[in-house]
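worker-03 picked up job from queue 'complexes'. Input manifest follows; two sequence lines, order preserved.
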Amino acid sequence: MNKTSVIESYSKNLKKNILYMAKVASSKSAHIGGALSLSEIISVIFCNYFKKPETKNSNRNRIILSKGHACLALYGALYQSGFIKKKILDTFEESGSDLLGHPIKNRKIGIDFSTGSLGMGLSLGTGVAIGLKKKKINKKVFVIIGDGECNEGMIWESAMLVPHLKLNNIIAIIDNNNFQQTGSLKEILTNNNLKQKWKSFGWNVKEVDGHNIKNLNKILTKKEKTTKPLLVLAKTVKGNKINLFKNDNKWHHSVLTEKNYNDSIEFIEKKK
Amino acid sequence: MILNEKLIKTYSSIGSRATFGLVALELVKENKKLMVLTADVSTSAGLDRFRKTYPDNYVEIGIAEQNLIGVASGLSSEGFNVFTTTFSPFQTLRCCEQIKVNLGYMKEKVVMVGLASGLVLGSLGFTHCSIEDIGVLRSIPNITILSPADCGETAKCVYAAANHHESVYIRLTGGSNNPPIYNSDYKFEIGKAIKLRDGEDVTIYATGNMVHKALNVASILNDQKISASVINVHTIKPIDVDIINEESKKTKLFLSIEEHNIIGGLSSSISEVLSKTVGSPKLISYGVNDYYEKGGDHSYLQKNYGLDEANIVLEISNELKKI
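worker-03 finished. Artifact:
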């Protein structure tokens, strides 16, 4: 199997695991749309940079899911890459579980920070990236941000500082699925020209189809020879390309029935 | 950290903010992982020399306090000993939720130094006064709150905070030319308030720059044959329960003096202890009585909020007559 096929298979499983946990959550609801839109992005990152469950070793890459509500994508990848056991997925959103509706800092299982209060991840990543440079650890800091999350002023505080400090060990990825909690970006708060905005702040901006594994892989593994930090503007579809969820914002946070689950799994299996 | 006469004199003459800058210059020599982060206040925090001498231990974040706390937390997670500093309102309320999530909830250890808290910047208006910081931060778990009484104690707090197990907020009050409370070295321990004067009739609890005022009040009372204990509450959280309980057994009247809203600060902390004690003394709270005065200089605001010695002495003698 070539690399793209390996990641494609990983991504297919990730979608299934996301839906599995959403089914586990049952009436407690789960953030489905924004987790699914991240499937390929998270798969490419984990298949390249988090192959083994290294948690104690400080010479490792870091990942911060700033859009913490998409935790199902992170939990699924942590399971698939061996950080956690399958049985833990079954505890999703149970009282006292390690896997709640937003990530909770738990270094033992590969979660470095509690996220979910939007806007904070890039700032944490900035501190981590400064720390890694000071310690001369040549590893990457991946920060995944939502496009709706870019409503938060704090994102832009960090967007200014990271290029100013020339932190080229940061890779920020915007999941540009064009929706936020209660509507489209256009309806809630117009935030056009993200590409130009980030570029003007001093980032090395790459726009990519966030579901195209081959292109994502190329961008996320290329050795850049610039002091500019990398911002990947990933054009995605909320709910991914799965019929039931595709661009339907009611799946931002919703209850997945047994039938919904079976139908969508069947759809994923049939898809090439 | 050991104080001597020379240090006390120097610190006292430059004020608490500049003291912080001087102490940071010493601290970094023994603590290579020290990182000082500021939000465009290096001069105000007395950090100009630090910034030039130790550029690798200094990060300028810009006027972005939410980011200040986020970056500090990221650095802390990588094992650095991080200090942040800016003016008190911006060090606390402006980035309150970042403090909650990163320092409280996630327990990333950061020492925050709040400059010019209380009423000292009254001439700049209440945007720059800070009478809410203790109340807000006290409600967040996993944060110790220190409020030094003079510049020597500021130095003690900085050293103690650097080695403390959890995040610390150091609330700096008073202006330059800060009157010293201590003239020689003494034992400073986080969580252990210090009795500066022992009395039988009334116990005055004070914090920050109000400790000096409390000593003045006790001295005037003494001339009126009223004997007052004075307690320097340098740690607001955790509050020293033992000393409050001990004084409860002895004196019949308690007073708290603080440059903070009387809701949420020192007075509230003492009340929370007293409410659990049967037959506890009455507590009179001196501070900002839950309203914003028209701005004015430090002494103008202190007087308008009733924080002047004559007013406090009069009320104590009147109260004691009723008991």
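worker-03 released lock.
The first helix of chain A runs from residue 3 to 25.
Chain A has one domain: 3-270.
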